[in-house]
Write a structure and sequence with these properties.
Number of domains: 2
Number of strands: 18
Distance between the termini: 33 Å
CATH class of the largest domain: Alpha Beta
Strand order of the largest sheet: 7-8-9-3-10-11
CATH architecture of the largest domain: 3-Layer(aba) Sandwich
Structural class: alpha+beta
Number of helices: 9
CATH superfamily of the largest domain: P-loop containing nucleotide triphosphate hydrolases
Length: 332
């Protein structure tokens, strides 16, 4: 299955997105870039929620939209599923009611898991009779994903579907996406601006910056490109562990976010963490979001840690002082 956009331009209000690429859709493809780059506009155009101002869009050899000839397949006839950031479940229905709606509307020629099967796979079988308004953020995300899969799309688009999740729940959801894509033979296009999300699930990456698709390809190849680094948020630059420092299966090494790096004012002793670096505090920056970024100059390079203002005060950290960076065990 090939997704193709040729000389495509999308406008949403005063924003303009330009895209020109062709990509064989297999596994999980991540649309990656900073907030406001145009990732959601790209998904909206593919799904049929946003018109092309110019250009051509095809999927699996079928013309979905051609601005020149004014051909445009309606969103509900494209065979493309979409999971939004806010889930958008039907509030007046139960969990099962939402899934039954998708099952009843899918084309008869397409096979898909039955409702009970997919509910069991996503571990919410006990929630089928519950009103969706009583669900947690994580539960809503799983139900929205299940509803999309039950509708049997040929391609599934997901726009920041794990924004309501954090920590282990977020990583579990990412792993689940990758497994479902393989089990259902369902290509997915997933929007995120978090590096660790991309590292976790991407087989391919589409790079978006300032209203342009600037590149695409296999995940390992794209992440090795110099222009990929320009897409990263500062919070993504915690520390990069080389392949030799982690499991043998991580051939490309692992990026660890600044949120997962601890700072100690004294040398840690008697702890289980394997990754500890000694260095000098090069800078302390208070973020507008309320966090504090501490930059530590070490033999391994500069390491960023994000801590709270309370931790900064309690530890007595100051620029020029010696400190230790400690990688949280669960970050790997």
């Amino acid at each position: 299955m090939t997704l193709q956009l040729r000389e495509a331009v999308v406008r949403r209000g005063g924003f303009r997105l330009a895209a020109d690429f062709e990509l064989a859709m297999q596994g999980v493809t991540v649309v990656f870039g900073p907030s406001g780059a145009g990732k959601s506009s790209l998904l909206a155009a593919i799904a049929g929620l946003q018109r092309l101002e110019t250009g051509l869009l095809t999927f699996n050899g079928r013309v979905l939209e051609d601005a020149r000839t004014r051909v445009r397949v309606p969103a509900h006839e494209r065979g493309i599923g979409l999971v939004f950031q806010d889930a958008r479940l039907f509030p007046h229905l139960t969990v099962k009611g939402n899934l039954d709606y998708a099952e009843n509307r899918r084309p008869a020629a397409r096979n898909a898991p039955i409702v009970i099967e997919i509910a069991r796979r996503l571990q919410f079988e006990n929630l089928l009779g519950r009103p969706v308004r009583n669900l947690s953020g994580g539960e809503r995300s799983r139900v929205a994903l299940a509803r999309a899969i039950v509708s049997a799309p040929e391609l599934l688009l997901l726009d920041e579907p794990f924004s309501a999740l954090d920590g282990r729940r977020r990583r579990d959801f990412l792993v689940l996406l990758r497994e479902l894509s393989r089990e259902q033979n369902l290509p997915m296009l997933v929007v995120t601006h978090h590096l660790d999300d991309a590292v976790e699930i991407a087989s391919q990456i589409v790079m978006v910056r300032a209203g342009r698709v600037i590149g695409h390809g296999a995940a390992a190849d794209v992440m090795a490109r110099p222009d990929f680094m320009s897409l990263l948020d500062r919070r993504d630059f915690g520390v990069r562990l080389p392949a030799a420092a982690v499991s043998a299966g991580e051939a490309e090494g692992v990026w660890v976010r600044a949120d997962s790096v601890l700072i100690a004012s004294e040398q840690p002793r008697g702890i289980s963490a394997r990754h500890v670096w000694r260095g000098m505090i090069a800078s302390i920056v208070r973020e507008t979001t309320g966090g504090v970024l501490v930059s530590l100059a070490t033999d391994a390079g500069y390491i960023l840690s994000r801590i709270t203002p309370e931790a900064l005060q309690d530890l007595g950290l100051e620029e020029g002082r010696t400190a230790w960076a400690v990688l949280k065990a669960h970050a790997l």
